[in-house]
Design brief:
Layout: E1 2-5, H1 11-27, H2 34-38, H3 44-56, E2 67-75, H4 77-84, E3 90-93, H5 122-145, H6 150-153, E4 163-170, H7 171-183, H8 190-206, H9 211-220, H10 228-233, E5 246-250, H11 254-267, H12 271-284, H13 288-297, E6 309-317, H14 318-325, E7 331-333, H15 350-353, H16 356-378, E8 395-403, H17 404-414, H18 421-437, H19 439-442, H20 448-451, H21 464-472
Antiparallel strand pairs: 1-2, 2-4, 3-4, 5-6, 6-8, 7-8
Helix pairs in contact: 1-3, 5-16, 7-8, 7-9, 11-12, 11-13, 17-18
Length: 474
């Protein structure tokens, strides 16, 4: 693992970053405009003291003006999934759909016992782990060599492989991330704690106003997601992965809520008046609701769509989870990596199922992985050191709530024929189920070629737009 700050660390850059934060802290109480306040912030040491005092009072919005970009080299997908779950962090990740991952390398942990001490058989366990990981990577390579595309072969990759990421976040999110990784429940997973400590080390040098606040928060951080109280009352049931996305709850009469919201804010009227306007409009044009919803769906700022929500439970594989989590405007609940999930819940890509030789390699790898995992469990290794045995094919249930605007965006991106097949199937099912309860909104959910007769893929277009345009011109 290697973490580097990309820019912003020379003396002039550092002074400039700190100056902006200090000016934000001064602005509300100092006379003059922003530029005039900036001119009063030319002493870096005084600026740091001012920022520390302000954020010490709990006013941390000012540090959101300090944005940092990091290179994360050779981190695990455990780190990757964790930062993606941080909703206000930006990231760009090396694609497993496009890049051959057989030689990227993998993380090797030190194995601990239940007392969090290094396991007495740590070296033997590491040797066994390395042999097994090489086997999994070789299996991935063999499947690719047999003609399976990389995006399907990756389902057999273990969650130990090295990932490379560019991550950007403001100083407020940086503080929260470090505290969670270094002293929260995530710190029990060693590579997450190592990642947090690397970020903390960089922060101490290049975000000097933040370290006192981090140290103070870490002292009192008691984050615990063991759910002990709940599990004392109700033991864990058998894990069952559902077969397709399921709409759990939604805003009743969503179509009417969207239309009425638009009228209410435009005319500054109450709900009863909005209902009256809708009735009058329908009397003049019986298709008013459908036409008006179409106008809302195609506005640049269709905030009306944010007034209704849909909650889904979604089955998804680890390989494809990032395709869902990267849409950051929905509220996503993902199970923690520990307690470990049921490794018998996994998916096999159709391209692999259709190839007898590949299916044999794939199935043997999944079963062998479960066998080795159980051996490590029996040896008394703590579960936090076994998270790298997860394979990309492992299935889990996630719960998310998304407003209609987010649903529209996800469906535009993920219903496209170029989208990965699992997330495409999920997005289509989401669109279908929303259409069942909100038919006017549902007409606007799908790829842009279907909803707008437009394709933005250029040379990589699948060609569907041509047939749609041809049908539309008849």
């Amino acid at each position: 693992m290697k973490i580097e700050l990309l820019g912003g660390y020379t003396k002039d850059e550092l002074d400039s970053r700190i100056k902006k934060v200090a000016a934000a802290g001064k602005l509300s109480r100092y006379p003059g405009n922003v530029l005039e306040v900036l001119e009063t912030c030319n002493d870096t040491e005084k600026n740091i003291k001012l920022i520390k005092r302000i954020i010490g009072m709990g006013h941390k919005s000012i540090i959101e003006h300090d944005y940092l970009v990091f290179a994360l080299c050779d981190v695990t997908p455990i780190v990757e999934q964790t930062i993606i779950g941080n909703r206000l962090t930006s990231f760009t990740i090396k694609s497993r759909r496009e890049v051959d991952f057989r030689n990227v390398g993998f993380y090797i942990p030190d194995f601990r016992d239940k007392s969090l001490n290094i396991h007495k058989d740590n070296e033997k366990l590491k040797e066994k782990y390395i042999t097994h990981m090489k086997y999994l990577f070789n299996t991935y390579g063999d499947i690719v060599d047999l003609g399976i595309n990389k995006e399907d072969a990756r389902f057999v990759l273990p969650y130990s492989y090295h990932s490379n990421i560019i991550m950007g976040l403001d100083a407020r999110e940086l503080e929260k991330l470090i505290i969670s990784l270094v002293s929260g429940h995530l710190s029990k997973i060693n590579d997450l704690k190592d990642f947090g400590n690397e970020l903390l080390s960089i922060t101490r040098e290049y975000v000097p106003y933040l370290t006192d606040s981090i140290d103070k928060e870490m002292e009192k951080n008691t984050d615990d997601t063991s759910f002990k109280y709940l599990e004392d009352l109700c033991p864990r049931p058998e894990i069952k992965v559902i077969d397709k996305p399921k709409l759990i709850s939604y805003t009743p009469d969503s179509d009417d809520v969207i239309i009425n919201s638009s009228i209410m804010y435009h005319y500054q009227c109450d709900k009863n008046t909005a209902n009256s306007i809708v009735e009058k409009a329908i009397n003049k044009d019986s298709s008013f609701k459908e036409k008006f919803m179409n106008i809302i769906l195609h506005k640049n700022e269709s905030r009306e769509l944010e007034q209704v929500q849909f909650t889904f439970q979604i089955p998804i594989s680890l390989s494809i989870l990032t395709h869902l989590t990267r849409h950051r405007t929905h509220s996503l609940l993902i199970p923690e990596f520990t307690p470990l999930w049921d490794f018998n819940n996994y998916i096999t890509p159709a391209t692999i199922s259709a190839n007898k030789d590949c299916l044999k390699l794939y199935t043997e790898a999944v079963k062998k992985n479960i066998q080795v995992l159980e051996e490590f469990k029996s040896a008394g290794v703590i579960e936090e050191d076994l998270v790298h045995f997860y394979l990309g094919c492992q299935m889990l249930n996630v719960v998310t709530t998304l407003n209609a605007r987010t649903a529209q965006w996800i469906c535009r991106m993920r219903c496209c024929n170029k989208a990965q097949w699992q997330i495409r199937n999920i997005a289509k099912e989401i669109a279908r189920q929303i259409k069942d309860v909100s038919p006017l909104l549902g007409k606007g959910l799908g790829p842009t070629c279907v909803t707008d007769l437009v394709c933005n893929e250029g040379k990589e277009c699948c060609g569907l737009i041509n047939s749609l345009l041809s049908q539309n011109n008849k």
